[in-house]
């Protein structure tokens, strides 16, 4: 079901007078008391303040749903509305009478054509509730007290050119190209819904997203007193897609419904995406504007049972009633401040199991059978702490106000992909937790001597073709056997639909789909590795044939020596990781996510370098084997790219040079 073209055009015209290419937002409705984006830390030894432990009450969730439903009724466009808290717990899923129960992931390709066939995750038919939940999770996970991002923001930063528009061919891909395939339903990091909301672990996060992160407008973050407390996602038109053109204004009914939902819970204007620039382009928040909304309807009692009803979603929500959100930073949320025994860093946050235990405590490597001198716990701790220290000094890219400190998540793994430690800033965006682990595992995997063998032995018959294309591309039939150290910037270079990135007319990278098949749902190896996992999960959510849920590990590459896959939450293809070496031997990797990609690169690179200096014996890959020694197609691969003059406490300009 789609909104009639005339209504969509009328809505867009009513709004267009106040919108420009890069500036568009959802209004400045209040979210409580005065917003303070960077409160003073409680102690002089700290760089950050802990986010206030705010959360949504049952009545507030009901109000949010009622407001969105009221706008949907006014538009005569039945919808499914999902609300989640900051760590991804589903608090409500409401389906209006007559709302479409199925949806398709878009068949639109990067060239604007409608593909006649399914490619990767393009053109899949799934439960519409999956789209609504993924949108809500995306808005919550991408946002923080310093930045408010939406699914329209996500759309802008994951496409093949940035910013995406008919007049931007030749520009590089979006800075978070590939992030849509994170927080996957098969991720071993993502927590899962406990039936009946019972038990100590019921509300721990971060939770998974049914389709990964969404790029379809209609997902907006929710705030209370300047603190992100969740997100709302709306699915109505059956088309789960993306916005390929930021030069126009969309009268998207799903976005109007979501905008109505966040009234009273909207982010402050100063931190919205349309106040944040990346590479000279201002990001998008929402094309919908408050002045285009109908009068708000706030009574949940007036809609429940008559206009629609709460519905269960298998694996996510039992449908028995609206649930209150969990305050982020509490043990119950699964993310809390670290104890002094866990980290000496006063600002460190860790993942917890809901009962007090750190899910990823610092430990020694598990790959002693194949690595002559594995990482020790002391070495892991040194790298994590030094990376964290670089984070506290770094000027943030995406946070407001200007000159805020970066906040990210940091993961270290061994050559088996085993997590050896994970730490994060107090207010780092949630999406970066899973992504930092994806990045670390990706760098360790592609720098490993077994990379080609593992891909060739994947049970999906298509995967080995990517290995052969990579070997042909490099002119080396022994490529991907550990001779070269790959960071995620390197792997990302060869995962773009043009090589070099953005230059139209060039061939695609060997790990990408060609531009005629490429879309945010069809990236190449990244999604090919997990497509079967997504399909199985979709069948499970539908409840067909008593289908079992996907196991809590992604990909079909063979298990490692520990019985666990090296890519247990998928791969990532945008920058922010480097492998860790002891001399010429790979011993692990570090992954960073949560701020600008150059900041992520720098924190991983300098964290490894400084950690090695602190303990001795380990460090970055020798220069002679780094990926930037390769020049396929006459163009040098990149290894890392550090920002110029990146620190708040020193005028140093080229922080990574010579390391």
Automatic annotation (TrEMBL):
Keyword entries, A-Z: Signal
Residues in the signal sequence: 1-22
Signal as UniProt keyword: yes
InterPro entries: GlcG_carb_metab_protein, PduO/GlcC-like, PduO/GlcC-like_sf
Entry protein name: Uncharacterized protein GlcG (DUF336 family)
Native source organism of the sequence: Novosphingobium hassiacum
Lineage, opening ranks: Bacteria, Pseudomonadati, Pseudomonadota, Alphaproteobacteria, Sphingomonadales
